[in-house]
Specification:
With about 240 residues, the chain is α/β, with parallel strands linked by helices. The protein contains eight helices and seven strands, in the order H-H-E-E-E-E-H-H-E-H-H-E-H-E-H. It has one domain: Rossmann fold. A seven-stranded mixed beta sheet has the order 3-2-1-4-5-7-6. The protein is globular and about 65 Å long.
Length: about 240
């Protein structure tokens, strides 16, 4: 609960509002790539960040106050294989156990479920400040930033396909004399952006019983006593040498 309170206070700052605006832009684009009928946000980060289509069923779960269903992150009140898409809005780095939360989400996702993960980059300026100056943290108190590569490794172990990993953050317009050099350095500076969004989906194919075609079933039945074209052949033994018929 203390993590939820600290994140709410941080989001009321100008930095928090700038991060929320940048995240909503990325999520609005990511929502157009999802398919299904149910999508849930785990964690009350900024209230509801999802703007699903009218045919989607959506909701927010977590220990914060601004959620639809209050629950612990280590025990989600969801049935197995019941959700088509899940957004983890900075939940892994605020949860007491990131592994337990990821396993719970994997249990609730359907066989072709999709997963969106928002997180802070520990190698950004904010992440380094959080690690070096613990008395004046740049991120919400209690945040433990996780490397995007580490999360992707966890997802692959759970048999997920990582579709994309986007790094972004609130940016200010640089001076005119810096715009051209920064344009060429953009592929490098992107690795130090403060926020990332990982998109992944399950690679498990539901096992459906396939019935044998009728013509194959009749052929197999012929082996049990019903004459077929191949089983109706007659073998004539050869006569011994010198014998006459």
């Amino acid at each position: 609960m203390k993590y939820a309170k600290s994140s709410e206070a941080w989001l009321d700052t100008s930095r928090g509002q700038a991060v929320l605006s940048a995240e909503k832009v990325q999520l609005d684009h990511a929502m157009t790539t999802l398919f299904g009928r149910s999508v849930l946000q785990i964690g009350g980060w900024g209230g509801s960040l999802l703007t699903p289509a009218p045919h989607w069923r959506s909701g927010v779960l977590g220990p914060a106050r601004n959620v639809d269903v209050r629950c612990e992150l280590s025990a989600l009140p969801l049935a197995g294989n019941s959700v088509d898409a899940v957004l983890l809005a900075h939940s892994l780095e605020l949860a007491p156990s990131a592994h337990s939360l990821l396993r719970e989400v994997d249990r609730a996702l359907s066989a072709r479920g999709q997963l969106l993960i928002l997180g802070f980059n520990p190698y950004s300026v904010w992440g380094l400040w959080q690690w070096l100056v613990r008395r004046y943290p740049a991120l919400p108190q209690g945040t433990r930033p996780l490397r995007s590569g580490r999360i992707q490794d966890w997802l692959r172990l759970l048999d997920y396909e990582v579709v994309a990993c986007q790094r972004f953050g609130p940016t200010r317009q640089p001076p005119r004399w810096l715009r051209q050099p920064l344009r060429w350095l953009r592929p490098v500076t992107g690795w130090f952006a403060p926020v990332y969004l990982i998109r992944a989906r399950k690679r498990r194919i539901p096992a459906n019983m396939v019935r044998r075609p009728v013509w194959q079933r009749s052929a197999v039945a012929g082996m049990d006593g019903v004459a077929t074209r191949s089983s109706a052949r007659v073998v004539v033994p050869l006569s011994p040498p010198g014998s006459t018929r």
